[in-house]
Design brief:
7 helices; 7-stranded mixed sheet; elongated; Nucleoside Triphosphate Pyrophosphohydrolase; alpha+beta; 2 domains
Length: about 300
């Protein structure tokens, strides 16, 4: 008998439930209907919860901050697996609503309130009982900045970009989050994108500028996000691991236009000013390594 897992998905960012539309052109994955994340337990999964977390990352590119075993299961014969299956049901709480679909299995998604969720989901058992159980779990949910679980949150692949001008100043930006956190330009590296390509794209997106890549540092830009920040800002990863790129601006400085959804402002500074703007010692230490490595640029 094949062991499988199924997980209902609730986002604490928008307080809604995730529906996935199965690929109607691929009957192997269930035909066109609204459902949720399911999959087989693989040899690398040490626990059922490991299988749930892996399936979420594979199908929707989100990781859970809490997995609740609903202690319910179903047995059925799978036409795809050609064997009997025992499927264990879970509830996964995610910290974000930014879904990236595996389009082989699913073609669309929808965040819904519980009533709409129960109405639309393909569910052969008692829907009223399912609704009561999900309501109860959310009513009893107690996630705090102290107990938020980072076990399954991945490290994102990131790039940090020092953008220099002719005066040997580099640009810093202020986050649009409530703490107006100050940093150099940075962002995630997309699938099949190089660090250099990501650097060029991120600078263009965040301040509307074009750059020329000068060098890549021997130092990395690895960092951890605090539990408090994860709790307050709904990040989908626990930190980042990546490279630091040195570049110079090649478009007119007066044409800079910030991405207001993420950035509240920017400033050109000299290396001697970092302690005035950087609030974290890790930031200062990293910047000083860059200044030492690339003395001619700064």
């Amino acid at each position: 008998m094949r062991t499988k897992v199924l997980s209902f998905i609730y986002s604490r960012k928008n307080n809604k439930w995730l529906l996935l539309k199965n690929n109607g052109e691929d009957p192997i994955h269930g035909g066109e209907k609204w459902f949720t994340v399911t999959g087989s337990v693989e040899p690398e999964d040490k626990t059922l919860e490991d299988a749930v977390a892996r399936e979420l990352l594979e199908e929707i590119n989100l990781a859970p901050i809490k997995i609740i075993n609903l202690n319910t299961k179903s047995e059925y014969y799978s036409e795809y697996d050609k064997e009997d299956c025992l499927e264990h049901n879970f509830l996964s709480i995610v910290n974000s609503d930014k879904v990236v679909l595996d389009t082989i299995e699913n073609t669309d998604y929808l965040w819904a309130d519980l009533d709409e969720y129960i109405e639309k989901i393909w569910w052969l058992e008692d829907k009223e009982e399912l609704k009561k159980q999900l309501e109860k779990e959310i009513d009893n949910l107690n996630i705090t900045k102290e107990n938020i679980d980072v076990t399954y949150l991945p490290y994102g692949k990131v790039v940090e970009v020092y953008v220099l001008n002719e005066k040997k100043e580099f640009v810093i930006v202020f986050s649009a989050l409530k703490d107006r956190f100050c940093k150099v330009l940075s962002g995630g590296v997309e699938k099949e994108e190089s660090f250099e390509e990501a650097a060029i794209r991120e600078v263009k997106e965040e301040i509307g500028a074009d750059i020329k890549i000068l060098a890549t540092s021997k130092h990395s830009c690895d960092f951890e996000i605090s539990k408090e920040s994860l709790f307050n800002n709904y990040f989908k990863s626990r930190g980042g691991k990546g490279k630091i790129i040195i570049s110079k601006i090649i478009s007119p400085i007066e044409n800079i236009k910030i991405q207001e959804e993420e950035i509240s402002g920017y400033k050109w500074i000299k290396k001697e000013e970092i302690k005035k703007y950087f609030s974290l010692q890790d930031q200062i230490d990293s910047a000083e390594k860059i200044f030492e490595e690339f003395k001619d640029y700064f």
